[in-house]
Amino acid sequence: MNEIVKGSIDLIRQLNYGLVYASLEEHKELSRTDLSRLTGLSPASITKITRELLDGGLVVTCGESSVGRGRRQTLLRINERRFQFLSMRLGRGYVDMALFDFSGRSLARQRHLFTEEERADLLASLVHAIQVFLPKKALSLACIALCLPGQVERHSGMVKHFPFYDLRNWPLGPTLQQAFDVPVLVSGDVRTWIQAEREWGAAKNCADAVLVFVHNDIGVGMVVNGQLIESENSLLGDLSHLQLEPYGQRCYCGGFGCACTLVTNQALEAQYRDLRERMQEHDLPPSVTIRELCELALAGNSLCQDILHQAAGRLSKVLSNLICLLNPGKLLLGGEITRADRLLFPMLHQSLASQLPAEYLVRLQIESTHFYEDPTKPTSVQVHKALRDGSLLLELLRGCQES
């Protein structure tokens, strides 16, 4: 019983600190009286919390209030340059890295491409790439946030499966935490993407939204009634292995005609090569990337437009089930395929209209995601969330007290 009470007290303390920080983040400058009024915490609690935040350098004074006839009150704001955090997206053959301060300002960024030798020991190569990237001086690293297109145990930071490298039970989070002695936040990329769109992007003012990310697999993130749908089970949100054609191509999972064999980047690029050969379109390049395919389609190439039309029809079979289940206000699509959105989206609308009752499409808006060109920005949402819920805040305060 005592352990339960202690745990509850610790959680309440964490949430209270996070509540104060979130109020300062939202309102920029507040007095202690303002914080007490906005958070509902007692003046004594606010005094204790703000004293610790000031001592840790997370908050600074910024003048005095000028409203009212009583005693002028000291204003507080977040010290956005006290700490920095590293935001990364680990992809297939590369890692994007960006260093941010707490205001969200990017201080440095780099993409590191892994050689074949580095891929043989990816974890050691990643640690080395981070060490080379981080500046040697004037750095107060608060944490590392990383997302990747794999199956992740959120609380442990263990990667259950990273398909491109075929890594299983990969101790990514624990290894980085040991190497850099800071908290490490690891998440699947689609989960961070939908959080970022909910916080800052296309789903900001939408209570019900679905994000479908088409790349080398097909992931989905869902917000229902303003709440992110998530689970400790890392398979939540993976649509790659929905069967679209029972007698289709064999998938690496052992099934046939999975969605990832038909509408992912590799699948569309392979369809281009096959269709070009069968139609003897020798004036076209022998192979293209998905971006180049989209550019050719936008330029009026009929072969590439046919590929997109077929992809829209297949993708709509996946999307129609999600729409029937969740009835979202917004459907967000991410991936290189959205470079041809002015062709793709009307095709999707037309295909969905043939599969769904009209009432499901009345309020549905299909849009591109906002953050595809900056893959490190969605990852940073994990850090802001951990500050606002108090978990990272208390870690930083403990570190300040020990140093």
Automatic annotation (TrEMBL):
<dbReference type="GO" id="GO:0006351">
    <property type="term" value="P:DNA-templated transcription"/>
</dbReference>
<dbReference type="InterPro" id="IPR036388">
    <property type="entry name" value="WH-like_DNA-bd_sf"/>
</dbReference>
<dbReference type="GO" id="GO:0003677">
    <property type="term" value="F:DNA binding"/>
</dbReference>
<dbReference type="InterPro" id="IPR036390">
    <property type="entry name" value="WH_DNA-bd_sf"/>
</dbReference>
<protein>
    <submittedName>
        <fullName>Transcriptional regulator</fullName>
    </submittedName>
</protein>
<comment type="similarity">
    <text>Belongs to the ROK (NagC/XylR) family.</text>
</comment>
<dbReference type="InterPro" id="IPR000600">
    <property type="entry name" value="ROK"/>
</dbReference>
<dbReference type="Pfam" id="PF00480">
    <property type="entry name" value="ROK"/>
</dbReference>
<dbReference type="InterPro" id="IPR043129">
    <property type="entry name" value="ATPase_NBD"/>
</dbReference>
